[in-house]
Design a protein that fits this description.
alpha+beta; three-stranded mixed β-sheet; 5 strands
Length: 143
Protein backbone atom coordinates (compact mmCIF):
# COMPACT_ATOMS: atom_id res chain seq x y z
CA UNK A 1 0.00 0.00 0.00
CA UNK A 2 3.04 2.29 -0.13
CA UNK A 3 3.60 2.32 3.64
CA UNK A 4 6.93 1.65 5.33
CA UNK A 5 6.86 -0.56 8.40
CA UNK A 6 9.82 -0.80 10.78
CA UNK A 7 10.10 -4.23 12.38
CA UNK A 8 13.16 -3.89 14.58
CA UNK A 9 16.56 -2.35 15.09
CA UNK A 10 18.86 -2.45 12.05
CA UNK A 11 21.84 -3.42 14.19
CA UNK A 12 19.94 -6.51 15.40
CA UNK A 13 19.31 -7.77 11.85
CA UNK A 14 20.65 -11.32 11.39
CA UNK A 15 22.36 -11.99 8.06
CA UNK A 16 22.53 -15.73 7.46
CA UNK A 17 25.41 -17.43 5.63
CA UNK A 18 23.25 -17.62 2.48
CA UNK A 19 22.70 -13.82 2.56
CA UNK A 20 19.08 -13.96 3.75
CA UNK A 21 18.21 -11.26 6.27
CA UNK A 22 16.10 -12.04 9.34
CA UNK A 23 14.62 -9.39 11.66
CA UNK A 24 14.60 -11.17 15.04
CA UNK A 25 12.33 -8.79 17.00
CA UNK A 26 8.97 -9.72 15.41
CA UNK A 27 9.81 -13.43 15.58
CA UNK A 28 10.84 -13.15 19.24
CA UNK A 29 7.57 -11.34 20.04
CA UNK A 30 5.58 -14.08 18.30
CA UNK A 31 7.45 -16.86 20.15
CA UNK A 32 6.98 -15.09 23.50
CA UNK A 33 3.21 -15.59 23.10
CA UNK A 34 3.78 -19.17 24.27
CA UNK A 35 2.81 -19.75 27.90
CA UNK A 36 6.06 -21.65 28.39
CA UNK A 37 8.49 -19.00 27.06
CA UNK A 38 9.58 -16.19 29.37
CA UNK A 39 12.44 -14.82 27.23
CA UNK A 40 13.82 -15.75 23.82
CA UNK A 41 16.79 -14.47 21.82
CA UNK A 42 17.40 -15.43 18.21
CA UNK A 43 20.94 -15.89 16.95
CA UNK A 44 22.23 -16.80 13.52
CA UNK A 45 24.45 -14.05 12.13
CA UNK A 46 26.76 -15.68 9.53
CA UNK A 47 25.22 -19.09 10.32
CA UNK A 48 23.32 -21.54 8.09
CA UNK A 49 20.11 -21.19 10.10
CA UNK A 50 18.39 -19.29 12.90
CA UNK A 51 18.82 -20.62 16.44
CA UNK A 52 17.16 -19.64 19.70
CA UNK A 53 18.15 -19.34 23.33
CA UNK A 54 15.02 -19.79 25.41
CA UNK A 55 14.43 -18.94 29.06
CA UNK A 56 11.33 -20.95 30.04
CA UNK A 57 8.61 -19.91 32.48
CA UNK A 58 10.02 -22.50 34.85
CA UNK A 59 6.94 -22.69 37.11
CA UNK A 60 4.70 -23.49 34.12
CA UNK A 61 7.19 -26.08 32.90
CA UNK A 62 7.23 -27.67 36.38
CA UNK A 63 3.41 -27.81 36.39
CA UNK A 64 3.42 -29.38 32.92
CA UNK A 65 6.08 -31.88 34.00
CA UNK A 66 4.07 -32.82 37.10
CA UNK A 67 0.93 -33.37 34.99
CA UNK A 68 2.97 -35.57 32.64
CA UNK A 69 4.70 -37.47 35.48
CA UNK A 70 8.17 -36.19 34.62
CA UNK A 71 10.49 -35.86 37.58
CA UNK A 72 13.85 -34.14 37.95
CA UNK A 73 16.09 -33.23 40.87
CA UNK A 74 16.42 -29.57 39.79
CA UNK A 75 15.43 -27.08 37.09
CA UNK A 76 18.55 -27.61 34.95
CA UNK A 77 17.97 -31.39 34.86
CA UNK A 78 14.27 -30.89 34.10
CA UNK A 79 15.10 -28.69 31.09
CA UNK A 80 17.37 -31.40 29.67
CA UNK A 81 14.60 -34.04 29.70
CA UNK A 82 13.70 -35.12 26.15
CA UNK A 83 9.96 -34.63 26.80
CA UNK A 84 10.59 -31.02 27.87
CA UNK A 85 12.82 -30.43 24.84
CA UNK A 86 10.03 -31.81 22.63
CA UNK A 87 7.50 -29.51 24.33
CA UNK A 88 9.56 -26.46 23.36
CA UNK A 89 10.17 -27.74 19.84
CA UNK A 90 6.39 -28.15 19.44
CA UNK A 91 5.69 -24.68 20.92
CA UNK A 92 8.21 -22.99 18.62
CA UNK A 93 7.14 -24.93 15.52
CA UNK A 94 3.52 -24.04 16.26
CA UNK A 95 4.36 -20.32 16.41
CA UNK A 96 6.51 -20.57 13.23
CA UNK A 97 3.89 -21.63 10.70
CA UNK A 98 3.62 -18.17 9.08
CA UNK A 99 7.39 -17.67 8.84
CA UNK A 100 9.46 -18.09 5.69
CA UNK A 101 11.53 -21.29 5.69
CA UNK A 102 14.82 -19.42 6.24
CA UNK A 103 13.30 -17.60 9.27
CA UNK A 104 12.31 -20.80 11.09
CA UNK A 105 14.24 -21.72 14.22
CA UNK A 106 16.32 -24.85 13.69
CA UNK A 107 18.21 -25.21 16.99
CA UNK A 108 16.97 -24.48 20.51
CA UNK A 109 18.82 -24.30 23.81
CA UNK A 110 16.94 -23.96 27.10
CA UNK A 111 18.56 -21.81 29.79
CA UNK A 112 17.72 -22.11 33.47
CA UNK A 113 18.49 -18.45 34.30
CA UNK A 114 16.80 -15.34 32.92
CA UNK A 115 18.76 -12.66 31.08
CA UNK A 116 19.39 -9.65 33.32
CA UNK A 117 20.87 -6.16 33.52
CA UNK A 118 23.10 -7.28 36.42
CA UNK A 119 24.79 -9.94 34.27
CA UNK A 120 25.30 -7.41 31.46
CA UNK A 121 22.91 -9.21 29.10
CA UNK A 122 20.34 -6.38 28.97
CA UNK A 123 20.48 -2.60 28.88
CA UNK A 124 18.96 -0.54 31.72
CA UNK A 125 15.91 -0.08 29.44
CA UNK A 126 15.63 -3.91 29.23
CA UNK A 127 16.74 -4.29 25.62
CA UNK A 128 18.65 -7.48 24.87
CA UNK A 129 22.39 -7.13 24.24
CA UNK A 130 22.45 -9.70 21.45
CA UNK A 131 26.25 -9.62 21.00
CA UNK A 132 26.87 -10.25 24.73
CA UNK A 133 24.38 -13.13 24.78
CA UNK A 134 25.84 -14.61 21.59
CA UNK A 135 29.31 -14.50 23.13
CA UNK A 136 28.16 -16.07 26.42
CA UNK A 137 25.75 -18.73 25.16
CA UNK A 138 26.33 -19.00 21.41
CA UNK A 139 28.29 -22.23 21.76
CA UNK A 140 25.03 -23.94 22.83
CA UNK A 141 23.34 -23.35 19.46
CA UNK A 142 25.81 -21.98 16.92
CA UNK A 143 27.97 -24.18 14.70
Amino acid sequence: DGYLRITGRKKDLLVLANGKKVAPAPIELKMAESLFIQQIVLLGDKQKAVSALVVPHIERVKEWAKENKIEAENDAVLLQQSAVQQLFRKEIDGQSEALADFEKIRKIALLDEAFSVEKGEMTPTLKIKRNVIAEKYGSLVLE
